[in-house]
Amino acid sequence: MGELFAQKNAVKKNKTATEEQGKDQALIKSSEKAKKKTYSFEEAFEASLEYFEGDELAARVWINKYALKDSFGNLYEKTPDDMHRRLAMEIHRIEKNYPNPLDEELIYSVLQGFKYVVPQGGPMTGIGNDYQIASLSNCFVIGNEGLSDSYGGILKIDQEQVQLMKRRGGVGHDLSHIRPLGSHVLNSALTSTGVVLFMERFSNSTREVAQDGRRGALMLTISIKHPDAEHFIDAKMTAGKVTGANISVKIDDEFMDAVINNKSYIQQYPVDAEEPVVTKEIDARKLWNKIVHNAWRSAEPGIIFWDTMIKESVPDCYADLGYKTVSTNPCGEIPLCTYDSCRLLAINLYSYVNNPFTEKAKFNFELFKEHAGLAQRIMDDIIDLEAEKIDTILAKISSDPENDEIKRVERHLWENIRTKTLEGRRTGIGITAEGDMMAALGLRYGSENANDFSIEVHKTLALEVYRSSVYLAKERGKFDIYDSNREKNNPFIQRIKETDEGLYNYMIKHGRRNISLLTIAPTGTTSLMTQTTSGIEPVFSPVYRRRRKVNPNDKDVNVTFTDEIGDAWEEYNVFHHKFVDWMKIKGYDPEEVKSYSAKKIDEIVQKSPYYKATSNNIDWISKVKMQGDVQKWVDHSISVTINLP
Questions:
Q1: How many domains does the chain have?
Q2: Domain assignment of residue 434, yes or no
Q3: What are the distances in angstroms from CA 299 to CA 2, 166, 256, 521?
Q4: In which element (H, E) is residue 303 found?
Q5: Residue ranges of the chain with pLDDT lower than 70?
Q6: pLDDT tens profile 473-526
Q7: Among 344, 312, 319, 314, which residue's Cα sits nearest to residue 330?
Q8: What end-to-end distance do the CA atoms of the chain give, in Å?
Q9: 197 and 226 both lie in a single domain
Q10: Residue 406 to residue 391: CA distance in whole angstroms
């Protein structure tokens, strides 16, 4: 007993010492914060404007979205270079937990200037940020086991959605579990209100949550097999309805077969039940035409070819272990199981073109391969950084004064996310600047040659990212539930085997660090930082017009028009950044060209590789084909816009 008492005292003393040490570290950290230099918006804007070579939009977006700041608006970074130093330092800190850590300067060198490797959104804002308690993940999917069509199940999802959005995450969830309109219920209503009412609820919740100057992002999905699918499809046709969500329909092969052959189709609830309680026979082609019409008129709903997605999904090889895909993130490029999340990173393709816009232009595949592997390693480090962020969120929940019953849903939510984050170690490696890469190589976006080259780039990326994940598995350990037998018949894994059997055999031997690795996201604000085309998209236009309000009495002002209240405005030409580079290489003075007439500028555009290669004039059928071929080398999905005539 005496020994046991002594041990307890020792544990108590150690615990007290640890707590005191923690307090000391917190005081040191607090002191460091107090000493940290701050910058005014004007100082940061002036320095960032110089960094972005006069690009006001890029400078403002970086300061407002990505610069390190506290809740009082104090800025702790002056330019993106400060941010890249912060990211490199934190990633290097994680590297030191593993064998053969990467040098901090090497990490910084691939981040510097947004030139090669570009973490997107949450990672840029959150890594090394002690001023906000937020997640690094860009996107999440939530849901319940089973039908969960009670108010309790529905409101639990509503709270989880809000809890994630307040930590900066975009959220997706599926509504196929909700019983259809008119179904019998045992409460005072007697019949169910159906899916659409809850769409509006989830949409309103999204609009209520602020995320540092923006609202949250939400994806709602439903199976085409659900009897309320048509109501779901029509939900956004009324102005002002469901404005806080994107909506997509999960379409199965049976439905498409019925559309093609003009057959009827049976909807049912529950959608996966062998003995459904509700069935409904519909005209498949009529509903398909409605989807097409509504998408043409309001840009929604989107459609997801669900059977194809599940068949191609590597994580769905582990569906019975909790990795059954149920919905996607708000832009659709990351299909996820419940309580999984993903962090995004883009590789700037333009930067791998040597001698751009010349006859000597060539894509540097060797450097690209090296950086692809490095990017995957950085993404694996970011998973550990995210686990730290989740621990901070959980500590915040524990310290909040509310009782445990109030905090239960939020705490369990983050515990579930933490488990999936570390168990599957999912990553989202993608690209940006595809359109500029094509132009720099002298390839016209949408042409057969350009499409073939694009496929080669994405195949190379897939192989090198998977190779890096296998090396990481050998060095750091494979993801917890890896099983080569489960994956052996997966079409994506089979393509790797057929293309690089050595890599496949090495993966069989050592496993893989990450359950799924690749995506292509929209990269909207990211492309403002890289000053390139966005994601896999072509250039929107090499030349466009902007306007600014001016004082007509100022010197050298060109008043283009005066509006109805008497304000004077000047319209001026703006050039796409890489079109400017092309002009310089071809001997044009961009500042002089800005003053040319529209006709003369158009003549210059016709000489450039951007001619007939914009989003509005490329062959849309060719683009769909290109997306399909590239998708074979992306193990998540692709976010892309198709402009139809």
A1: 3
A2: yes
A3: 75, 27, 20, 18
A4: strand 302-305
A5: 1-35, 184-191, 210-214
A6: 999 999 999 999 999 999 999 999 999 999 999 999 999 999 999 999 998 899
A7: 344
A8: 85
A9: yes
A10: 19
